[in-house]
Amino acid sequence: MGTRAGALTAAPLALVLVLSGCGGGGGGAPTGNNATADATITIYGTNPPGNMLPANATDAGSAKMQEGVYSQLIGYAPTDGKPFNQVAESITTTDSKVYNVKLRKGWKFHDGTEVKAKNFVDAWNWGAYGPNAQLSATWFKQIDGFDDVYTKDPDGPSGPQKPATPSSKTMKGLKVIGEHEFEIALKAPFSVFTTLIGYTPFAPLPDKFFADPVAFAKAPVGNGPLKFVSFTPNVDIKLTRNDDFPLEQKKVKFKNLTIKIYSQQEAAYKDLLSGQLDFMEALPPSAKAGSKYKTELGDRLLTARLLSISTLTVPEYLPEYKNLDLRKAIALAINRDQITKTVLADTYVPADGWVNDNIEGYEKGVCGEFCQYDAVKAREYYQRSGHTGKITIQSNADGGRKEPLEAACNSIKNAIGVECTFVGATNFGDFRNLIDGRKLTGLGRSDWGADYAEIENFLNPLYRTGGSSNDSKTSNPQLDSLLAQADATAQRADAIKLYQQAHHLLPTYFPSIPVWMERGVGAKSTNLEAAQLNFKRRLEYASVVVKAKG
Q1: In a 10 Å sphere around its CB, with 0-12 CB exposed, 13-18 middle and 19+ buried, how is residue 12 labelled?
Q2: Distance between CA 237 and CA 227 in Å, rounded?
Q3: Is the pLDDT of residue 5 over 50?
């Protein structure tokens, strides 16, 4: 959809955050192209590592289902990630700390019940409540009362100690005012809050969820443009169109969606070329070699302005990798220019920091000399580190991840003369389970696609102590302090400056090593007339038009 966010208008006595809607309209199946209206389309997928509840799904395999099944208060424009009102009719605040939310009336869950204020409030409280052990629990940390519902695990999920029982099951910052109105009070002003709440953990949940969350996770009921049908592990996830979805421009025009789960990206690409698969958001190394994909795909090639970063996370819990000189040696030893030009065929560019270069607040060269290949300096830092033994890089072996990381290992080996091995997990789900369970035995691939277009999204989840996607499990009090200051800054421009200061702290201890940034190259099959790759590197479902037969 082309609708962009409305302006954030500062009234004399109130900052009014009323983002432009994505269009109204009633329900009913699409009309017009019958080939599209009755069609089943298939897209590339990876196996989710765990249950797919909104507050637990942080992986790409789950996200494709989540984006169809759930709709949050706000949505994001596919091209640049600008927010617009979705389930929310309005979101207003006078101080960027207390927000009044009014919902569109008549919006329904797939079971026919209406989406009401309590469905948001109850879902957020459940997701944040520590004993429910949701991976995205800390996304609610800005809300007043979060510390009453979430207590930190003293030794991590794999340790013997258990976190203390929280003093409350609900956050005092959430208050239902009426059936279609609620209030959110934050601990402090937070300039990007109305952008943040479009992320999946902030989805509403129907009343039936709270009766049996375990059963619900196996057959989720959402409020989005697609309804859940089935999930067969390592085979597929099936969804079907929600004909009663109220936002015209976000409706899907096809009937059914099958997310086919592949263990090898190359197999998926062959299916795409033969018309057995309709969409891939990324291409395998075999297609990128010599830019072969350009000739093979022609006008089926899809590009997008992605907001992503690829790094190698350095687990803080592995003693042999704690040495800063070793981290710097590895950073210097990776020939990013060569790998992105050859193995990745210019579909990626070298990273020079921890923030994507399409994000407002990006600064060139934050990583400094350490993201520039220099074998001589790499050897000097390696010798200074005193490290002995080999270096390993872990990742899932599917999805085209193996080849560039093997090349990175070869680069490290050639530069500093130490054995480096790529260790591949069977699939993405297995690999994420290693990370979430603190079971990495070496460096780990950590690719991050922005959930929304803010510099904050590249810092808080990834590097703040206890962040939901802090794969390295690092803790830096100075960074935490700066991020807390930035979070509590009401004016976005001032907050960005503080986030930039926090970004500059990362090269002082390298919780991860930046490697490259993706440029967004995907493809559609000959079965599709139109399809859009969005800023999250996913298919924009509302964009799909199936070709008429004959």
Answers
A1: exposed
A2: 11
A3: no
